[in-house]
Design a protein that fits this description.
Helices cover 44% and strands 14% of the residues. By secondary structure, the chain is of the alpha/beta class. The strands form four sheets. Strands 1, 2, 3, 6, 7, 8, 9, 10, 11, 14 and 15 form an eleven-stranded mixed beta sheet that branches. A six-stranded parallel beta sheet has the order 18-17-16-19-20-21, with helices on both faces. The model has no long low-confidence stretch (mean pLDDT 93).
């Protein structure tokens, strides 16, 4: 790859540090540390208060910590030894040879395009599950030495921060992150000046700089239009993730898709294959066609060659996730691009509609992904069935089971999401090498031999850590809302580390049905306050323009007086909070309206930590549930929504009352719930090897990337 990156920020940071700590600058600029067992502990040991105040950002910690703090850290052998071990580990990770991953090679990688990346909380370019999955896949590619690069956008305002008022209504605010505060470096061109990419947006060329974030050995390139050459409107294009205005989002998709391909070319990154993750970057396929046309190829050959280099993953059946645009809007956004392709423009724009559709029909980003790629996959077996039915009109001459949409079920990056105590337990009993091969089922068979007492003690520790966090966070949230002192103080003593803890934390959308948790006030109050107590942690953000989802949040929040001692809504859900929640909750609840859950991954993360899933049979849980590793609700999709909700809520309460709560509190003389632990072991043994990104990456390599059809 011909691109170079600026080292001045890293060098400046190193120069600020005491000599013994200077290797920290290199570690700070590679997110590899974030999924190592000692990673968080290294930074926290420098100064735990500064670490949390800086949003757990190593770059900010090292830039902003007082000099005497750094000097004190430089004199502590434990910190220096831990730094040395991590530095040596990073060297070894970067030096490993690439895994053969045909058709990709080190000088011809796979380019993974996505609108968001959840790599770490300190890089705020993510909103929810799509981004977290993308971040997990980059980490897995690094662990497997797969030749892959990521392409996205640098949102300086990121996604919004959530605050609830005293009525429970959500309010949003955005904070601006300067690139200097992030672990990103500006990409330079061959001349040593910052790389500038020109992108045809509407009726002129918009300029974008490129920043690089290192995710282990995988570079993540982020385009940024906030440069002096652009107008105020153009500088704002990449400012904010999932910005509310449709026109702005479309301009983002132009920059991501068309600009992303041009950025790779400008850097000398010759991607052999483009993986378009959801419809947002689908315009990248049109840029591949334009490049072929510029070489003088006829449009039919250019289209065929472009399709041979593109694979597409669709992530949701929800209409809002499959955006369409009126013809006039798409033509306006691509006016300059249309001039570049000339007479081919109508044929290219027709790719955003089913073949043979009227030219007046809206242009769909998912439609473009389907038609301009050599293969399409859904993200779970059930989602594959739904997607084939949903998009069958693109293949009117085929039966539904012949629609060429397969599936690669999502997974989670185990080193990222498995909490330290659980990782240490499995290292002792499965052998330390198991973490390098988490998709091998035989390695998980040793779960059964773990003493129940050890597994239960680990689960209790994780729950206690979560309860301590929930208490502290609840106090700060209530103080910020101006709640009465008595209500604030109650938060610090309400949650109990020995009580069955349920969790519901995910993006709040209407189809996720948060409202089912409190659909029957009498039963939920009795359940939470019964002889065998239960406590519930809820977290999640509603989209700023989704008032129905905001109303769900307020509805649950409205029970704070009756259920204040047993229910907490934790504000501003992010990756850092998510790691504690999925590790500490005993039961993970998932209640989508089927068949709208494409996959879901939060329940997989809970399972990796010994949590048990209770969910609607939809998405990944259709594959994961076996009758002994959790609980399932079979929702009747033929019912109208109110009746379906009522029946599903009744099933939820019934399972909790009759099975979940009694099993958790059924203890032997030693205080161990043997039946519960038996189910936890069944969950770990069955779900652990099946729902991790090592298996997901293997499936992409074998089923998607290595398939024939790649054109040069």
């Amino acid at each position: 790859m011909a691109e170079t990156t600026a080292r001045s920020e890293r060098e400046t940071l190193a120069a600020r540090l005491p000599e013994p700590l200077r290797p920290l600058a290199r570690l700070a600029y590679n997110f590899w540390w974030s999924w190592q067992p000692e990673g968080d502990a290294l930074w926290r040991s420098i100064d735990p208060e500064w670490w949390d105040a800086c949003g757990q950002s190593p770059v900010r910690l090292l830039r902003e910590a007082p000099q005497d703090t750094l000097d004190r850290a430089a004199a502590l052998p434990a910190i220096l030894e831990r730094m040395e071990r991590l530095s040596r580990g990073l060297d070894e990770a970067l030096a490993r040879p690439c895994t053969p991953a045909l058709p990709a090679m080190p000088d011809a990688p796979i380019a993974f395009f996505c609108a968001e990346y959840g790599v770490h909380a300190s890089l705020p370019v993510y909103a929810g599950g799509l981004g977290v999955l993308a971040g997990d896949l980059l980490k897995e590619a690094s662990d497997r030495c797969v030749p892959l690069v990521g392409v996205g956008l640098l949102y300086r305002r990121g996604y919004f921060h959530q605050r609830l008022d005293r009525s429970g209504w959500q309010h949003e605010c955005w904070t601006v992150s300067a690139p200097e505060q992030l672990a990103v470096e500006r990409v330079l061109g061959a001349s040593g000046a910052p790389l500038a990419v020109e992108i045809p947006v509407r009726d002129r060329m918009v300029h974008a700089s490129v920043w690089r974030a290192d995710v282990g050995r995988v570079p993540l390139y982020l385009l940024d239009t906030d440069v002096p050459e652009n107008s105020g409107v153009e500088r704002f294009i990449t400012a904010q993730l999932y910005i509310g205005g449709r026109e702005y989002r479309l301009l983002q998709y132009v920059v991501l898709g068309i600009g992303g391909v041009r950025a790779l070319e400008a850097m000398g990154v010759h991607a052999v294959l483009l993986h378009l993750n959801e419809g947002h970057p689908a315009l990248a396929a049109l840029e591949l066609v334009r490049d072929r046309l510029a070489r003088g190829e006829p449009i039919e050959r250019a289209l065929s060659a472009a399709r041979g280099r593109v694979v597409f993953t669709t992530h949701t059946p929800v209409a809002a996730g499959n955006e369409t645009y009126p013809v006039a809007e798409i033509e306006h956004a691509l006016r300059t691009f249309g001039a570049e392709v000339g007479a081919a423009a109508p044929a290219l724009l027709a790719l955003g509609r089913p073949e043979g559709a009227a030219p007046s029909q809206p242009f769909g980003m998912t439609d473009l992904g389907l038609r301009a790629s050599r293969s399409t996959n859904a993200v779970s077996r059930r989602h594959g069935e739904v997607a084939r039915a949903m998009w069958a009109h693109h293949w009117p001459d085929r039966r539904e089971d012949e629609i060429p949409i397969g599936h690669v079920t999502n997974g989670v990056h185990v080193p990222t999401w498995m909490a330290g105590p659980m990782r240490a337990l499995l290292d002792r009993h499965l052998g330390p090498e198991w973490i390098e091969h988490p998709a091998d089922p035989w390695r998980w068979a040793a779960i059964d031999a773990i003493p129940d007492e050890e597994l239960w003690a680990t689960r209790c520790r994780l729950r206690a850590d979560l309860v301590a966090f929930a208490r502290a966070r609840s106090v700060s949230d209530r103080l910020a809302r101006g709640e009465p002192i008595e209500y604030v103080e109650r938060a610090s003593r309400s949650f109990d580390p020995d009580v069955l803890t349920l969790g519901f934390a995910r993006r709040v959308a209407s189809y996720k049905r948060l409202n089912l948790l409190v659909a029957d006030t009498e039963r939920i109050v009795a359940l939470l306050g019964g002889a065998h107590r239960v406590q519930l942690l809820v977290a999640g953000k509603a989209h700023p323009r989704d008032d129905a989802a905001k109303a769900m949040v307020r509805h649950v929040f409205g029970f704070k007086e009756q259920l204040a001692a047993r229910v907490v809504f934790l504000e501003d859900h992010d990756l850092a909070m998510a790691k504690l929640l999925v590790a500490g909750c005993d039961v993970w609840l998932n209640l989508p309206r089927p068949p709208l859950e494409a996959s879901g991954t939060s329940g997989m993360k809970s399972a990796m930590n010994g949590g048990l899933n209770l969910g609607i049979l939809d998405g990944w849980w259709c594959e994961g549930y076996d009758g002994a590793n959790g609980w399932a609700i079979r929702s009747d999709t033929m019912l109208d929504a109110p009746l379906q909700d009522a029946r599903d809520a009744d099933a939820l309460y019934g399972l909790l009352e009759r099975e979940v709560v009694p099993l958790f509190y059924e203890r032997d003389a030693g205080g161990v719930p043997r039946g519960w632990v038996r189910r936890v072991k069944a969950s770990l043994r069955s779900l652990g090897p099946a729902f991790n990104t090592a298996r997901t990456m293997r499936d992409y390599l074998v089923q998607v990337y290595a398939r024939s059809g790649v054109a040069s």
